[in-house]
Amino acid sequence: MKNYFYYDEKECQFIPVYYGSAERTVYTISLWILIGTVLSTLSLSLLSFSVGSPAEIALKAENQALYKQLNDTKSSIEYLDQQIEAIAHVDNELYRTMLGIDPISEGERQAGIGGADRHAAFDAYSESSSDLLRWTASNLESIERRINIQLLSFEEIKAHYNENKELMKNIPAIRPVSGIILSGHGMRRHPVLGYKRLHEGVDFRARVNTPVYTTGDGVVKSARRRGTYGLMLVIDHGHGYETRYAHLSSLADDIRPGTAVERGQIVAYSGNSGVTSGPHLHYEVRRNGESVDPLNYMFADLSPDEYIEYRRIADSNPMSMD
Questions:
Q1: Integer CA distances (angstroms), 113 to 107, 135, 142, in order
Q2: Distances in Å between the alpha carbon of 76 and those of 140, 143, 279?
Q3: Statement: 181-316 belongs to CATH 2.70.70.10
């Protein structure tokens, strides 16, 4: 057994210390408790340093959730950007062109602003968070500016429209049938003849004897059979505009050259006459003698979403119906 001593200054000698078994037990237990407490404190300190406190862990989880939400928001912003781009395209290529208003340039629509860095405060965060926050903030600001510019453009178009109502009554502005578009304007392969050529209109799905509506006020120019087009109706809308409806099965009553027609009036019935791969309506819009894309002249009854879907179908089909 190991002996312990203490120095007695009066006696000037070391005096041995004797502990009873109970005292030794208490001493041993206290020592282990002290050691355990120190080790536990050190372990908790190390764990807290490497993993974080409960509050820090909760904060990290919250940050991760917010980062994910920001990424989801990014997808929504990209979709909004596409929608605004589509509206701007229709605004420039259709509304403003038809009314003779100068288109708005891309630079004007972006309405960029310079000066000091407006998002420097985001640099305090991690690189990934800072980049995402900068992208989100700058794109939201860009969308807000572009929407404001588009609203001003619509106000200008509305004012111009009020001054040119007669022109707007005659311009082709609706779909000639309610069916979905099958093929678009441009170079397409003919389904029967087999070679590529300029498809000067768009093809709509339409069963035989589906009602066909005139797309603007005008006067019937011709109504007769014409080669591969079969029975075709041509309407002169004035102001340089003309529409053509081909592969018809028959004409509506009283429709003949010289007949005045109004937008939305039934003028014919679709069919399968001429050279086609099946029943449908071939529809053309001509301006000053040149064929133009009819899809850009359906603004009166096509929503932006419908326009995007029609455009996707028209551009993706390499073959026409006639």
A1: 11, 15, 9
A2: 11, 12, 40
A3: yes
